[in-house]
Amino acid sequence: MSDISRTSAVIVVLALLIAGTLSRSQLVANWIGVVATIAVTGLTVFGLYYTDRLRVQLPTPLLFGIAGLFGIYLGHVLVGNFGSASLAVWPFYTTFVAGTLLFVLPALVPERTVFRIVSRFAVCVGLIGMFVVFVRPFTIPIVAIELTTWHDKSAPFLPAEAAMRSVTANPNEAGILFAVGAVAAIREWLDERTVVAKALAVLAILSLYLSQSRGGFALFLISITLYPVFRYSKPHIGVKLLAFGLAGTVLFVFSRIGVLPSFGPLERVPLTHRDDLWRGAVDALLSENAIRWLFGPGIIDTGEWIAPYVDNEQVSGTPVHGAYFHFLRFGIVGAGIWLLTVWSSILGEALNENQNHFALALSSGFGVLMIFEAVNVFDTRIGAILMALSFGYLFAGVSRTIVIKRPTTGFRPIFESGEKSNDFRSSQYRRSSTEENRL
User: Fold this and answer.
1) Distance, first Cα to last Cα, the chain
2) How far apart are the C-alpha atoms of 56 and 416, rounded to whole Å?
């Protein structure tokens, strides 16, 4: 099945999901979840290396993109362009976590195993939230922490006084988890037609609805629309549909920030002042000197950076909502690297005859979602973890891999080069109901 046992794979993936959820939760301080995520990834890599099973895939688009961005981060740290000590260390641990999820786990654990766990974890989180919504908020014994709903919005047509966030601090975090879990459960149902898969899909979709997460809705709708297109049609059809939708979204965004003339009906689409933040980010960057125009002001709070350029007092001081605009704090070069990394990965694999339909649909959904939400792989939150896994599995089985083993003498690790293997993807990632892909 993989280079690690099924039990080990389940433990690692489940631990990552729990740690990522705790990174922004009602249960504990954020730093506990951050430390837990770093610990899980660190122990996983160390355990694999110690047992001579550390396999690393090397997809060119992701490898150069992550390396290029880390170079910019490191440059800012070295010259002191960071807002606080915690921001100064941010690039190091987030790049390590992202690297593990992008390059290590997809080379070792079958994608179906990972996302079967995700769908079940999402439903468990959803059931906890449903109890809070439909029965009552409850206090966790010993720690005396009360789980509550989100006060700012409610779910229409259901007796919910406010939107569900379950154990997470914000319903958008839960919404992304529910969206990915729902798509994974629907894929499982299409493959196996089991009652369990159908129940998982229904519960995950209900959880997503109760969260009232527009980001989660967008991710789910884009992914579930593209998945059957990629799965049942020829690659060029999916590429055309994706390109058409992406072009329309980009034109919409450009019209809202003033790059293109506005179009009446589009002006009425509610963005909760995201367009004000986008314009503020662009204006803030253009006000910098030439060097900062290229590489940005550094690792800083974007809310403080753009505040003088945001006309709307309601959102002044709010961080930029939208990952591509968020990366403008690393200048045109940083934002350009991230944009190129994301879409060269997606479009490159979309044209591949031997594509992983599920990972491609999810990655496309995340690619569009990043226009409106600040989710990206350089984080320890659940959304970042799921996004990194989606992009990592785009290349599982079709990118070159190396095996890193402990040396028999001295301290220098041994690298063994592997070849690309389309057969690996065909046998491990596209089977529908074989025993090796089951939990």
Assistant:
1) 11
2) 10
Q: How far apart are CA 240 and CA 246, in angstroms?
A: 10
Tokens, residue 322: 């939208």
Q: Are the beta carbons of 76 and 92 closer than 8 angstroms? A: no
CB 329 within 8 A of CB 277: no
Among 135, 103, 111, 88, which Cα is nearest to 13's?
Answer: 111
Altogether, the residues listed in the chain come to a count of 439
Element (H, E) at 146: strand 145-147
Cβ-Cβ contacts under 8 Å for 56 (sequence gap 6 or more)? 103, 104, 107, 401, 402, 403, 404
- Give whole-number Cα distances, 58 to 23, 85, 200, 268, 428, in Å: 28, 31, 34, 44, 18
d(C-alpha 379, C-alpha 100), whole Å:
12
pTM as predicted: 0.90
User: Whole-angstrom Cα distance, residue 292 to residue 331?
Assistant: 6
pLDDT digit string (tens) for 254-284? 888 777 766 666 666 667 788 888 889 999 9
